[in-house]
Amino acid sequence: MPVVTLQNAAFRPALANRSRSVTCTAQKASGIQQFAAAAVVSASLLAAAPAFAEGVSFVAPGNGKAVASPVHVEFAVDGLAVRPAADGLIPGTGHFHVYVDVPAAQQPGEGEAIPFDNAHKHFGKGQTAADLELQPGKHTLTLAFANALHESYGPTYTQSIEVNVK
């Protein structure tokens, strides 16, 4: 029985780096029938696929949450891959940074280096989670993604949340 397997590369515009695979079977299917089956599955996957948005996000904590210090933060990125800075410049890869109480107007823009200071936390080993020691009160945390040279990928790869440390 012929089998048609469709890998995510065929659906990359809708699914980006998501790993999806669909297998169709057809008894006595000709090449044209296999192609038609693949086209039907492709169209149904595209229609059912959620809207894809590249960028970064805080998995935890949620925006506006009351938290205790140390604040456990978890990060995610869509559209790029997490790699340690020590791996060097590899297109489409980078690592996370968290800015603590850095106003948007003072945040590095696309291609600008992220400073090494107490307000800019670097996770150059490829970490996707960390615990941050923060004083009690309201804080703005900004997650940013940057390349191996700590150069920001810009606003698409930046997200801010507020937390209230008790």
Layout of secondary structure:
Elements: E1 3-7, H1 12-15, E2 21-25, H2 31-48, E3 55-60, E4 65-67, E5 71-78, E6 81-82, E7 93-100, E8 120-123, E9 129-132, E10 137-146, E11 158-165
Parallel strand pairs: 4-11, 6-7
Antiparallel strand pairs: 1-2, 3-5, 5-9, 7-8, 7-10, 10-11
Query: Can you identify the CATH superfamily of the largest domain?
Result: Immunoglobulins
Low-pLDDT residue spans:
1-29, 35-52
What is the mean pLDDT? Answer: 79
Q: State the end-to-end CA separation.
A: 63 Å
DSSP helix count? 2
Judged by helices, strands and strand pairing, the structural class is: mainly beta
What is the alpha-carbon Rg in Å?
Answer: 21 Å
Number of domains: 2
Give the second-level CATH assignment, the architecture of the largest domain.
Sandwich
Biggest sheet layout: 6 strands, mixed
Q: Sum up the overall morphology in one term.
A: globular
Q: How would you spell out the order of helices and strands? A: EHEHEEEEEEEEE
At the first level of CATH, the class of the largest domain is Mainly Beta
How much helicity do the residues have?
Answer: 10-25%
How many beta-strand runs?
Answer: 11
Task: Please give a structural write-up.
With 166 residues, the chain is mostly beta strands. The chain has two domains: 3-48, no CATH class; 55-165, Immunoglobulin-like. The protein has helices spanning 12-15, 31-48, and strands at 3-7, 21-25, 55-60, 65-67, 71-78, 81-82, 93-100, 120-123, 129-132, 137-146, 158-165. Strands 4, 6, 7, 8, 10 and 11 form a six-stranded mixed β-sheet that branches. A three-stranded antiparallel β-sheet has the order 3-5-9, with no helix packed on it. The termini are far apart. Residues 73-166 form the DUF4399 domain. This is DUF4399 domain-containing protein. It holds the Pfam family DUF4399. It comes from Tetradesmus obliquus.
